[in-house]
Amino acid sequence: QQSELNSFLWTIKRDPPSYFFGTIHVPYTRVWDFIPENSKKAFQQSHIVYFELDLTDPYTISALTSCQLLPQGENLQDVLPRDIYRRLKQHLEYVKLMMPSWMTPDQRGKGLYADYLFNAIAGNWERKRPVWVMLMVNSLTEVDVKSRGVPVLDLYLAQEAERLRKQTGAVEKVEEQCHPLNGLNFSQV
């Protein structure tokens, strides 16, 4: 029942009211039907929407990509133990081999090719910091590959806000998310 769902929506009582909504980074189609109507209504009625990061801004995407890279001249092979690097490389070869069978007919119909999708997700992996490679590997599963092309909830809401001509902004900078992750040592990763 819609009325029984936990909305992850908090109301800040003021005039007009403000709302705080908790999202998760999953394809919006996995959760959209479970988002209560009060949350959807609050979004529709809002004139200004702030997100964790502005995922529609090319600078944000570029900065996220850059922050994941090892310092110039370093490669993952230089920082990972040899056996882990070898297993990682073998796993990525396996994923690349399996990816065509993981893709949906709908993805193929939209012109997505397995090689393109693999490169979009794992391209330049040998230049990435270990923590980002770990996050990348965690998303290289059949279930996640099948949902590629569907925006995560945050991005979907940002695209909707843009489409509805709402004023948007971000509460964090890329560096505020990137630097703590890049500060983890190898054993923490």
Q: Structural class from helices and strands?
A: mainly alpha
Distance between the termini: 40 Å
Secondary-structure element string: EEHHEHHHHHHHHEH
Query: Strand percentage, roughly?
Result: 5-15%
Write down the overall mean pLDDT. 90
Strand order, largest beta sheet = 1-2
Helix tally equals 11
| Number of β-strand runs | 4
Query: What is the makeup of the main sheet?
Result: 2 strands, antiparallel
| Rg on CA atoms, Å | 19 Å
Question: Can you describe what's shown?
Answer:
With 189 residues, the protein is mainly α. The chain has one domain (2-183). It has helices at 28-31, 37-45, 58-67, 76-79, 82-102, 105-109, 114-122, 130-138, 142-146, 153-163, 174-182; strands spanning 9-12, 18-21, 48-51, 167-170. A hairpin with a 5-residue loop joins strand 1 (9-12) and strand 2. The radius of gyration is 19 Å and the shape is globular. The termini are far apart. Belongs to the TIKI family.
Name the descriptors.
189 residues; wnt signaling pathway; single chain; transmembrane; 4 strands; 51% helix; two-stranded parallel sheet; two-stranded antiparallel sheet
Topology, please?
Layout: E1 9-12, E2 18-21, H1 28-31, H2 37-45, E3 48-51, H3 58-67, H4 76-79, H5 82-102, H6 105-109, H7 114-122, H8 130-138, H9 142-146, H10 153-163, E4 167-170, H11 174-182
Parallel strand pairs: 3-4
Antiparallel strand pairs: 1-2
Helix pairs in contact: 3-11, 5-7
Cofactor: Mn(2+); Co(2+)
EC number: 3.4.-.-
Membrane topology: Single-pass type I membrane protein
